[in-house]
Amino acid sequence: MFPILITYKNLFLHASLSFLLTLLLTFLKIPVFFLHGLHTYIHPDNLSNGVKAAIRRPDGSSDSASGFSSKTNAEIRKRTKSKDNKFEFDESNAQIFRLKLDDAHLQSRLYFYEYRNAFTFSLVVISSLLLEKYLNGGSEESGSFANGGFVPVLLGFVGVFKFLTLLAKVSFEKSASRRSEKQLSVLFGVLGAIVGNMVCFLISPSVLDFNFGPIDGFGRFSIAVLMGCLAGFLFMPATKSARAFWLGTDQPRSNLAMISCGWFGRLTLYANYLVILFAAILWIKPLSEMLVNKNIADGKDVHLDNKFGHLERLFGSVGILPSDFAKLRIWCLLLSGFLQLVALRPNLQMYLNEALLCWYQRLHASKVPDLEFSRAKVFLHNHFLCLVVLQFLAPPVLLLVFLGLSQLDGNSIEDYQLVCGLLPCSAFLKEVALFLAWWVVFIWAVYTSVTLLLFRRGNLYVS
């Protein structure tokens, strides 16, 4: 028995890690604990249960900045209707309750079980990729069945398929988004596939620092289709993230303490956005060549001239080593994925606070406000809570899975002729997976930046 364990020790380690991690995450309820403490809001029809409202329409003695009222329900004055004023505002129907998310609340939400399974599976996949990276560093039998190299590759492919399927499902969920958003997702998906064909067949070596030479035409077309799917499915999550950044950093200057997040949340949102932007431009050749010194390895001494005709010598003569620059790009992608996971909680809280802001705006819009729209918005944001968590969780997980596959040894799946007959294995793992990881970051940066620009110009607004 011991010789078998020694022979298949890596395979045993992969299987044990996956099983134990799944067991621990399920029994300790880590997916629920990850969202524990966030606040959601409900807009009740009546107050017969005696629950005290968290927020009420402020009057002269209340804090107008935060929206709290010092009066209790029993102290609300009963106003008598006059003949001149037919419509009388009823404060008891304009209250909103704030609830802290717990296990019971989350289990009653739509897509909770999909979120729980996706959260558990994502940690299993990422842990398996990290274990393979560690074991592969000191192994000489990479790619053999005994080494267990097929496990992270198989889990990676299943994870990508699983999250793409979930994104497709939640993107077209009825009542979860506007019809125009669904149409724009389809449009950007088609445009993404067209841009993908241009990148794979025309502009990849000259503009982007990727080389698809070893891949045939069918493989490039498949990559372009996958790029289109990512461009379409990530449109709505990216725009939601941009709205969360807009509210979390208090760009509308609402000065409402219950809507914007604290200093740590703002720091996370700013750091996440800046790292994504920086990582997205590191593969664009005119910019990336400025950061790499290609003459260090050749031992050339470059003398810069003051003449304009010799200024081009500056490019490729200053900067860091190419090997260090390659590591920098990998670490930036890894950091961007990690920061997106850290920013998931602030983004989700801002998504829930968006319904609170809508209620507050409608409440103060007129003397007799129409709260039906805000009531529906509060309900939908509360009902589709786990759906939005899936939309925020999928991009960083896809990024980390693609990045992990790109860092594996190319021999990990060369023994499997079914996969290697379709695409060159080493090229897929080293180049295509890294390109798809960059593509996730790039389109996320483009969608977020354009949405924030439209907010800044006043073409879009949160309501």
UniProtKB/TrEMBL annotation:
Transmembrane segments: 12-35, 150-172, 184-205, 217-236, 256-284, 328-344, 384-405, 432-455
Region (Disordered) residue spans: 58-79
GO cellular component terms, A-Z: membrane
Coiled-coil stretches: none
Identification of the protein by name: Uncharacterized protein LOC107414399
Pfam families: Tmemb_161AB
Membrane topology field: Multi-pass membrane protein
Record family assignment: Belongs to the TMEM161 family.
Subcellular location: Membrane
Segments of skewed composition (Low complexity): 61-70
Principal location class: membrane
Protein keywords: Glycoprotein, Membrane, Transmembrane, Transmembrane helix
